[in-house]
Specification:
The structure holds 2 protein chains of 2 kinds. Chain A is α/β, with parallel strands linked by helices. Chain A has a single domain, classed as Thiamin diphosphate (ThDP)-binding fold, Pyr/PP domains (Rossmann fold, 3-Layer(aba) Sandwich), CATH 3.40.50. Chain A is built from 11 helices and 9 strands. Chain A has a 7-stranded mixed sheet, sandwiched between helices. In chain A, strands 5-6 form a two-stranded antiparallel ribbon. In chain A, helix 2 crosses helix 9 and helix 5 crosses helix 6. The radius of gyration of chain A is 19 Å and the shape is globular. Helices cover 43% and strands 20% of the residues of chain B. Chain B has 14 helices and 15 strands. In chain B, helix 12 crosses helix 13. The termini of chain B are far apart. Classes of the chains: A alpha/beta, B alpha/beta. At the A-B interface, strand 1, strand 2, helix 4 and helix 6 of A face helix 4, helix 5 and strand 9 of B.
């Protein structure tokens, strides 16, 4: 019996190789298994923990799958109306200039209904960070066509594939905001492999650093999967993302801080 | 000696906001209220008090900037005119759902659509009955002078924070553009971040170890909890209705006939009342200052005294519905209004009262 393995024996601090940051709450994530949102959340919170800025951070949640982000992130948060997060964050940052302020938005929120708020917050060079999770679909409402849906991609509102002649090409809003002088750092990353997760975390660190140094708006796009909306297994969706999303939305820095 | 200045209504409210300790203004130009933003830009409140002013890209962005600042416990305001206020309804509804205090100004112009830039009172329903989606109300103050435009900035912020509610000042193009003398107050200090943490524990000021995180959201997917939130809001509106009715009465003590009018229309009715008194007609004026809460009780009381109530509005008849609720059938209530940006003349208004209640 002395040599038997018990939970108590294993769960010792010296055996701990990985744990969640205390800045993530213990609430179970509302995201589908296989979705990238949880990893993206955790990377942001790990960086805030490492910066020791929990008490100085105010986050803004969007409308979309991550509408409930405030359930998972243990910081003060505001939930914004659909697409309006950059305006809400502007209001916070201008009146609380010493706070670390970020928005967390999906592609429908940021690149369709909130295009105006996004472009103008970027153009004013608001000292905030925008974390933009792009999965090419409206996840929460059940898989409708998004501004970033690829041509010929099937969604519930483009059941025969997106007709680019009628609905336009996917909007490369990240390239668009990179052209504006108000943005300091614009990058596109992913969280589907350990290597990419590490790169994304580095990008998040750099984005917050830009804000701390008052360099202007830092914009981090995270191309992610939506296995439920794309109607694939998580593994297949990651493969599909690499083969189809990345050629259109290539990963890497688009604009680096001076 | 108090400081007295000749000012436009739109300038007066901007100066009133600065002196009331306002922290931030976000707005977008629209006639007939652009002087609010212009005055703020020209008077450099950032240097005077540290108040921050930004011209936003739209009314939609403006109201959501107000949301972000208000959720941090700051005294924040915006201003616009009718079409712009329509655009803001989304943000106002979200602020109702999250119980965020703020000051809103609508310098009403004629509608619908682009309508006209001339004064109107056609946004009463939108302001008083809840212009956005969901069951909610705002406190609505109706200034009838440039002095009140000034005074209501301070009063508006006080009420907004007392009840965690949106306060709308429902003005119109005449009150916004006309010039009158204004008695100014001393500058009030802006609230400090430490005071915000103490006074407004709900505000998102950064999660410290001594408290749970603060979340500003209007979302609750559980209908049982969402109903409780709604009941809580309704109880708040009821409390406001019981405690915050404001009105002005002129020559009502011996009145046989009564004008009921707010804002610019009340100014016209005041003159019409004097013309009527000169002719020996015992007419009084009840001017609701708060449109929500509405002075139902006073109208009910006067309904058992007067022979007829003449409502005058620069609309097709909106406030009259509330006056009728107050009168509750005890006395005839008639509407008179001019539309599309036309201000009625005092003799025109008096003749309508005579025709409706005396000549018959």
């Amino acid at each position: 019996m002395e040599n038997s393995i018990s939970k108590e024996k294993i769960c010792q601090p010296e055996n701990l190789v990985y744990s969640k940051t205390p800045l993530m709450t213990c609430n179970p994530l509302s995201y589908c298994p296989g979705c990238g949102h949880g990893t993206a959340h955790r990377m942001i919170m790990e960086v805030i923990e490492e910066l020791n800025m929990q008490a100085e951070t105010i986050g803004v949640a969007p409308v979309g799958c991550s509408v409930l982000a405030y359930d998972f992130l243990d910081i003060d948060m505001q939930q914004a109306a659909h697409g309006r997060a950059p305006a809400v964050a502007t209001g916070i940052k201008r009146l609380m200039p010493n706070k670390l302020v970020f928005t967390y938005q999906g592609d429908g929120d940021l690149a369709a209904i909130g295009t105006g708020e996004t472009l103008h917050a970027c153009n004013r060079g608001e000292n905030i960070c925008i974390f933009f999770v792009n999965n090419g679909i409206y996840g929460m409402t059940g898989g409708q066509m998004a501004p970033t849906t690829l041509p010929n991609m099937k969604t519930s509102t483009s059941p025969f594939g997106r007709d680019a002649a009628s609905t336009g090409q996917p909007l490369k809003i990240t390239e668009l905001v990179a052209m504006l002088p108000g943005t300091s750092y614009v990058t596109r990353q992913s969280v589907h492999t350990p290597a990419n997760v590490r790169k994304t975390k580095k990008a998040i660190e750099k984005a917050f650093q830009c804000q701390l140094e008052k360099k202007g708006l830092a914009f981090v796009e995270i191309v992610s999967n939506c296995n439920s909306g794309w109607k694939m297994t998580p593994l297949d969706s990651n493969k599909w993302m690499e083969e189809n999303m990345f050629p259109f939305f290539p990963l890497g820095d688009i604009k680096v801080p001076k | 000696m108090k400081e007295i200045r000749l000012m436009k209504g739109n300038e007066a409210i901007a100066e009133g906001a600065i002196r009331a300790g306002c922290d931030g203004y976000f707005g977008y130009p629209i006639t007939p209220q652009s002087e609010v933003l212009e005055y703020l830009m020209e008077n450099r409140p950032e240097e005077r008090t540290g108040m921050f002013v930004l011209q936003a890209e739209s009314e939609i962005a403006s109201i959501h900037m107000v949301y972000g600042g208000a959720a941090c416990g700051k005294r924040v305001m915006t201003s616009s005119s009718s079409p712009g206020i329509s655009l803001m309804q989304e943000g106002i509804s979200f602020m109702a759902g999250t119980e965020l205090p703020c000051l809103l100004l609508n310098v009403v112009r004629g509608g619908p659509g682009l309508g006209t830039i001339q004064p109107s009172q056609s946004d009463y329903f939108q302001a008083v009955k809840g212009g956005g989606h969901g069951d909610y109300k705002m406190i609505v103050l109706a200034p009838a002078s440039v002095q009140e435009m000034y005074d209501f900035a301070k009063l508006g912020f006080e009420l907004a924070f007392k009840y965690r509610i949106q306060v709308m000042i429902l003005s119109d193009g005449a009150i916004g553009q006309m010039m009158e003398k204004v008695v100014l107050d001393e500058q009030l200090p802006r609230i400090t971040d430490e005071e915000i943490k103490k006074k407004y524990p709900w505000a998102t000021t950064g999660k410290t170890p001594d408290r749970e995180r603060n979340i500003i959201t209007s979302l609750d997917l559980d209908p049982v909890r969402q109903e409780k939130i709604n009941i809580h809001l309704q109880e708040k509106f009821k409390k406001i209705a019981e405690n915050e009715v404001r009105l002005e009465k002129l020559m009502c003590d011996d009145a046989e006939y009564l004008f009921v009018a707010y804002g610019s229309s009340a100014r016209v009715c005041q003159k019409a009342m004097q013309l009527g008194r000169d002719k020996g007609i015992k007419v009084g004026l009840l001017r609701p200052i708060t449109l929500f809460p509405f002075p139902y009780e006073e109208i009910k009381r006067l309904s058992s005294q007067v022979k007829g109530i003449q409502c005058v509005e620069m609309s097709a008849g909106q406030m009259i519905e509330d006056v009728k609720l107050g009168a509750n059938g005890k006395v005839p209530v008639e509407h008179f209004g001019r539309l599309g940006g036309i201000i009625p003349a005092p003799d025109e208004v008096l003749n309508v009262l005579i025709k409706n209640f005396i000549k018959n």
